[in-house]
Known about the structure:
With 108 residues, this protein is of the alpha+beta class. The chain has two helices and five strands, in the order βαβββαβ. The N and C termini lie far apart (29 Å).
Amino acid sequence: MSTPAPYYKYHVFFCTNLRADGSQSCEQCGAQASRDYLKQRTKELGLTGAGGVRVNNAGCLDRCSEGPVAVVYPEGTWYTYVDSEDLEEILQSHLIGGEPVERLRLPG
Length: 108
Protein backbone atom coordinates (compact mmCIF):
# COMPACT_ATOMS: atom_id res chain seq x y z
CA MET A 1 0.00 0.00 0.00
CA SER A 2 1.50 3.35 -1.01
CA THR A 3 1.49 6.46 1.13
CA PRO A 4 -0.75 9.19 -0.27
CA ALA A 5 0.81 12.50 -1.27
CA PRO A 6 0.58 15.20 1.41
CA TYR A 7 -2.28 17.68 1.04
CA TYR A 8 0.22 20.58 0.88
CA LYS A 9 3.52 20.44 -0.94
CA TYR A 10 5.02 22.57 1.83
CA HIS A 11 3.65 23.45 5.24
CA VAL A 12 5.49 26.30 6.98
CA PHE A 13 5.10 26.81 10.71
CA PHE A 14 6.28 30.05 12.33
CA CYS A 15 6.90 30.11 16.05
CA THR A 16 5.03 33.20 17.22
CA ASN A 17 5.45 32.52 20.92
CA LEU A 18 5.78 35.41 23.38
CA ARG A 19 7.13 34.31 26.74
CA ALA A 20 5.41 35.95 29.69
CA ASP A 21 8.60 36.02 31.75
CA GLY A 22 10.34 38.28 29.21
CA SER A 23 12.95 35.72 28.19
CA GLN A 24 13.90 35.52 24.53
CA SER A 25 11.04 34.45 22.32
CA CYS A 26 10.30 34.53 18.62
CA GLU A 27 7.54 37.13 18.84
CA GLN A 28 10.04 39.59 20.36
CA CYS A 29 11.75 39.38 16.94
CA GLY A 30 8.58 40.19 14.99
CA ALA A 31 7.60 36.60 14.17
CA GLN A 32 3.90 37.35 13.64
CA ALA A 33 4.67 40.09 11.12
CA SER A 34 7.10 37.74 9.36
CA ARG A 35 4.49 35.00 9.19
CA ASP A 36 1.96 37.50 7.83
CA TYR A 37 4.45 38.62 5.18
CA LEU A 38 5.15 35.09 3.93
CA LYS A 39 1.46 34.16 3.98
CA GLN A 40 0.60 37.24 1.92
CA ARG A 41 3.41 36.56 -0.58
CA THR A 42 2.28 32.96 -1.12
CA LYS A 43 -1.25 34.23 -1.79
CA GLU A 44 0.00 36.92 -4.19
CA LEU A 45 1.96 34.31 -6.14
CA GLY A 46 -0.95 31.85 -6.28
CA LEU A 47 0.93 29.20 -4.30
CA THR A 48 -1.77 28.43 -1.71
CA GLY A 49 -4.31 25.62 -1.56
CA ALA A 50 -4.15 21.88 -2.14
CA GLY A 51 -0.79 20.83 -3.53
CA GLY A 52 0.67 24.24 -2.70
CA VAL A 53 2.03 26.07 0.30
CA ARG A 54 0.34 26.62 3.66
CA VAL A 55 1.77 29.13 6.16
CA ASN A 56 0.66 28.80 9.80
CA ASN A 57 1.33 30.09 13.29
CA ALA A 58 2.70 27.60 15.75
CA GLY A 59 2.88 27.71 19.47
CA CYS A 60 6.31 27.49 21.01
CA LEU A 61 8.62 25.28 18.97
CA ASP A 62 11.11 25.33 21.87
CA ARG A 63 13.93 26.92 19.85
CA CYS A 64 13.36 30.57 20.77
CA SER A 65 16.99 31.00 21.77
CA GLU A 66 17.85 30.45 18.08
CA GLY A 67 14.96 32.58 16.89
CA PRO A 68 13.03 33.69 15.31
CA VAL A 69 12.41 30.25 13.83
CA ALA A 70 10.22 28.58 11.25
CA VAL A 71 10.09 24.98 10.07
CA VAL A 72 9.13 23.70 6.63
CA TYR A 73 7.48 20.30 6.26
CA PRO A 74 7.46 17.64 4.94
CA GLU A 75 11.29 17.77 5.09
CA GLY A 76 11.48 19.28 8.57
CA THR A 77 13.86 22.04 7.45
CA TRP A 78 14.42 24.52 10.28
CA TYR A 79 15.19 28.16 9.53
CA THR A 80 16.07 31.32 11.31
CA TYR A 81 15.62 34.65 9.56
CA VAL A 82 16.14 38.35 10.13
CA ASP A 83 13.93 40.21 7.69
CA SER A 84 11.66 40.02 4.65
CA GLU A 85 14.69 39.58 2.37
CA ASP A 86 15.51 36.32 4.19
CA LEU A 87 11.87 35.23 3.95
CA GLU A 88 11.78 36.06 0.26
CA GLU A 89 14.88 33.93 -0.27
CA ILE A 90 13.21 31.00 1.53
CA LEU A 91 10.12 31.54 -0.62
CA GLN A 92 11.94 31.71 -3.94
CA SER A 93 14.60 29.08 -3.29
CA HIS A 94 12.84 26.49 -1.14
CA LEU A 95 9.09 26.89 -1.54
CA ILE A 96 9.20 27.59 -5.27
CA GLY A 97 12.53 26.12 -6.36
CA GLY A 98 12.72 23.15 -3.99
CA GLU A 99 16.21 24.04 -2.74
CA PRO A 100 16.67 24.81 0.97
CA VAL A 101 18.53 28.01 1.86
CA GLU A 102 21.65 26.68 3.54
CA ARG A 103 22.79 29.99 5.04
CA LEU A 104 19.52 30.28 7.04
CA ARG A 105 19.20 26.63 8.09
CA LEU A 106 19.34 25.52 11.68
CA PRO A 107 20.45 22.01 12.64
CA GLY A 108 17.46 19.66 12.35
